[in-house]
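Run log // design_07
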């Protein structure tokens, strides 16, 4: 004969599990697998790449490679960088984070002129505060500072700030969605004018985890106002998976489909793409 108390306990546990899987920070994938927006962008360090809503403690190392091709202006640029990042979930509501572009290499050619450079890149630091969390969603407020650490330019030091709202939605056991809306402002510190630049980033993405140790992510981002009204429209895809233990990996790519981030507007003839591999250790 079945014990009614055991049946009641099983039903309660199943209901609790179902509720947890629908929470905004709950995942269908393993905890070591990265989450949130794919951190591949077209600006310094992690500026204008969005930010995840759910706090987590981890350290990460990224390698990036990118190319820019501008046919009308006979211009091409190849670049590579290495980034060290870290975050600390001080509580379930607060995350502190930082990213350092520890190496930045560029090789450019303009008609018959070419050259290369290697430098230290930008360092960013910020925080995200979760102000709304329920069984379906998480909404936060995020701020990120860009510090004047780059040695790419001898006489100019770039500084900036980014303010944004990250969101996360738990759709089911294997599917989640995320988004980000942010405003970024930057300028150069030198003997001349500061030349302030501003931009607006809108990002939306989905993450599907068909198995616990791996997931597929698709993000779509739009940036306005930096060099043109429409800087870029860019889809980004990535595969995320647990490598071993608490070590996770993300392999992603992004390409600019529309827009122009240069001072000259040449639609359809200017292309930018970025590839990145990121390893992260969840603590």
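design_07 sequence
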């Amino acid at each position: 004969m079945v014990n009614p108390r055991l049946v009641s306990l099983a039903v309660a546990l199943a209901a609790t599990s179902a509720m947890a899987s629908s929470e905004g920070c709950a995942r269908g994938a393993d905890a070591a697998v990265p989450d949130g927006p794919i951190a591949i962008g077209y600006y310094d360090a992690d500026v204008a790449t969005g930010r995840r809503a759910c706090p987590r403690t981890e350290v990460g190392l990224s390698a990036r490679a990118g190319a820019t091709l501008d046919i009308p202006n006979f211009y091409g640029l190849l670049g590579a960088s290495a980034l060290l990042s870290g975050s600390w979930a001080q509580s379930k509501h607060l995350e502190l984070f930082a990213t350092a572009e520890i190496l930045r290499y560029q090789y450019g050619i303009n008609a018959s002129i070419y050259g290369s450079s290697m430098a230290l890149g930008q360092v960013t630091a910020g925080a995200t505060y979760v102000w709304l969390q329920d069984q379906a969603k998480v909404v936060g407020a995020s701020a990120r500072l860009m510090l004047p650490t780059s040695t790419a330019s001898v006489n100019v030091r770039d500084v900036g700030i980014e303010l944004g709202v990250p969101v996360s939605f738990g759709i089911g056991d294997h599917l989640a969605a995320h988004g980000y809306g942010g405003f970024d402002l930057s300028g150069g510190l030198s003997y001349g004018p500061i030349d302030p630049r501003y931009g607006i980033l809108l990002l939306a993405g989905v993450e599907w985890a068909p198995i616990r140790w791996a997931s597929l992510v698709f993000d779509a981002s739009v940036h306005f106002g930096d060099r043109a009204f429409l800087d870029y429209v860019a889809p980004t895809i990535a595969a995320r998976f647990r490598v071993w233990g608490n070590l996770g990996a993300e392999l992603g790519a992004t390409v600019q489909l529309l827009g122009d981030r240069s001072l000259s507007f040449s639609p359809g003839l200017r292309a930018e793409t970025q590839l990145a591999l990121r390893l992260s250790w969840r603590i």
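The longest helix spans residues 4-21.
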